[in-house]
Amino acid sequence: MRFLRLLWRYPAITTTVLVFVGVLILHAVDAAVAGRWIATGYVAAFVVWTLVGMVRDVLRGHVGLDILAVVAMVATLAVGEYIASLIIVLMLSGGEALEDFAGRRAKRDLSALLDRSPRIAHVLLHAQTSDSDEVRDLPVDQVAVGDVILVRPSEIVPVDGVLLTETGTFDESSLTGESMPVTRESGGEVLSGAINGSRAVRIRAVRTSSDSQYQQIVALVHAAEDSHAPVVRLADRFAIPFTAVSLVLAGTAWALSGDATRFAEVLVLATPCPLLIAAPVAFLGGLSRAAKAGVIMKGGAVIEQIARVRSAAFDKTGTLTQGRPELVAVRPAEGFDEDEILQLAASAEQYSTHVLAEGIRRAAHARGLALRSASEAREEATNGVVAEIDGRSVVVGKPAYVAALAPDTVRATLELSQAAAYVAVDGRFAGVLVLADHPRPEAAAVISWLRTHEVDRVVMLTGDVGPTAESVAHQVGISEIHAELLPPEKVALAADLQPRPVMMVGDGVNDAPVLAAADIGVAMGAKGATAAGDAADVVILVDSLAKLVDAVSIGRHTLRVALTAIWIGIGLSVGLMIVAMTGLIPAVAGALVQELVDLATILYALRALNGPSTVLPSAPARPGAKTEASASQRAE
C-alpha cells in the first residue's frame, strides 16, 4: 500500500520508469526502432511540458535553469542517444522525489510543531468542586476565556492559561527549545503547546485558542513554509553564468571534435539539480533548526538577510530590559495618599497595554486594592491613559503629557534603571509611581557578541527620555542612543541607518511599524502574540535576548551551507564537463554520474540541520551604576 502511495505521489517518476523499462525490453527483443520512437515521443512530450513551465516562470519574472535540461534532452535525441535522454528525464523527475525526501527531513522540527497542535480540551463544567466535576471534551476553538480545563498527564496544554493546581511540571521544549522541564506554581502562566508532566493539573483559560501562544507559532510556521523567494533568488544568481559556461564548453567540444555527439555528452553533465534542490533543502534545514532553538523565521529570505546583517537597532523596554517593571515607590503629591493614587492609577491602567501598566496593576493587587471600573477610558498612543473613575478624571502617563493637563506637575529624580508614571486627578498633579526595570542579564554579552561578529553599528531607538535610555545603554554597551522618539521617528531612523542590512529588535505594540520597516524585524514574542510579532520577520519564543545570537548564527551557517552546496554542484559539473569534452564519458554514463553529483550536493545541504553551538562571551562590567536618570517616557 505504501509503495502504491509513493507511485501516486510521483507520477512523473512512475511514468518515466515504465517507459524506460519498456524501451529496454524492446531493445532486448530486437525491436530497437520501436523503442527509439517511444523514447523519442515521450522525451519530446516531456520537453514540451518543461518549456510550458519555463514560459510561465518567465512571465512571473523568473529565468531559471531548465533551459540546460531542455537543450541536453534535445541534443541527446538528435544524436540518437535516446537511452541517455530517458535517464535525463528520470533524473529531473527524480529530483522531485529527492527534494521531497530531503525537504521533509530538513523541516522535521517545523512539521513536529504543526503535528502537535492541540485539538481537544477537557473543560470542567463544575469547577468549584474538585471531586465531582463533570468533564466535557470540546474542540479547542470552543474554549472561552475563564473556562477551567483539566490537563491529564503527558497531554498537551490546549490554550494559554493560569495554573490553578498547587504546582505543575511542563515540557516546553517545542515552544522554547529548552530541553529541561519547567515547574510552575499556582497562579503562574502555562502556555499552550507545553506538555504536562506526570500529574493532572487544572488551568483557567486566559486566552482563546486563536490568541494562544501555540496557535501563533503555528501561523508563523505556515508563513515560513510558504516562503520560497530566497531560494529562487539565490539559484538565479548562478543560473545565467552556469548556463553560459555549460553551453560554451559543449559548443567548444563539438567544434574541436567535429562530432555533434560530444555536445550532448558534455551537456548531460550540466543538469541544474544542485542549484534547484540543494539550496532549498539548506534553507528548510535552517528554518527547522531555528524552530528547534525557539526562534521562528518567516521564510528563507529572512535567513539570507539575517546572515548578512551589518547594523542592529534595539528598543529598550522589554528588549534590552526585562520588561517586567516592579513598583518600588509611590510619591504622592500634597493632598493625596499612596493607596489613593495607586488605586486610581491601577484602575485607569486596566485600559492600557503598556508594560508599565502591568506593573502598576500587580502592585495594586499586592496591596489588596480593588480596581474600579471606568465610565469612559482611552489610551493616548505613546503618551498615557485617560479614564473617568467614580466621577474623577484620572490621567496616567509620561511627564510632558501629564504636565500639559496638570501644570503643577513636578518632575521626579530617579536612580539607575528606574522609570516613572505620573498621575493627575481632576487637573491636579497627584504624584509619581516609581518602577524599576533592570537590563536583561544577557544583554551586554549579546551586544558584545554582535560587535565581534561583523555587526558594525549598534544603536538604541527608544521612546524614553535621554538620561533613562543612556543609563541602560551604558550598562549593556551601546554608545549610540536615540531617545524620546515617536514611532514615525523610529521608522525614519531605521530607514536611514547604514550599513545595510539593518536588524531591529523590539517588543511592544509601538514597535510594530519599525519592525516592519527594517530589513530584518525581530520580536521578543515569549509573552504572547502582539502586533510586533505579526510585523516581525523573526519571532523569539524564549524570554531571552541570547536567542538573537542563535538566530544570527543559524542564518549565517545556513547561508554558508547553501552556497557551498551550490559551488560543490557547479564545481563537480564543470570538472566532469571538461573531462567529457575529451570523449571519455559517454552520454549514458554522464547522465548516471550527474545523479551522484545531485546526491552529493543534497546530502551536503542537509548539514544546515546541524551547526556549531554559539557561546556568548562574559558580559563586561559597566561602570556608572549610581548615575541619576530622568523620568521614563510613557511608551517605547
Structural class: alpha+beta
Estimated helix fraction: 40-55%
- Number of helical regions: 23
Oligomeric state of shown chains: single chain
Strand content: 15-25%
User: What average pLDDT do the residues reach?
Assistant: 82
Taking Cα atoms only, what radius of gyration do you get, to the nearest Å? 31 Å
Can you tell me the residue ranges where pLDDT is under 50 for at least 5 consecutive residues?
228-232, 620-636
* Number of beta-strand segments: 22
Strand order of the largest sheet: 10-22-21-20-11-18-19
Give the biggest beta sheet.
Answer: 7 strands, mixed
How would you describe the shape?
A: elongated
Span of the ends, CA to CA: 59 Å
Gist?
With 636 residues, the protein is of the alpha+beta class.
Commentary on this structure:
- The chain has 636 residues and is of the alpha+beta class.
- 49% of the residues lie in helices and 16% in strands.
- It has a seven-stranded mixed β-sheet, with helices on both faces. A six-stranded antiparallel β-sheet has the order 2-1-3-9-4-7, with no helix packed on it. The protein has a six-stranded antiparallel β-sheet with strand order 12-17-16-15-14-13, sandwiched between helices.
- The longest helix has 35 residues, at 546-580.
- It is elongated and about 110 Å long.
- The two termini are 59 Å apart.
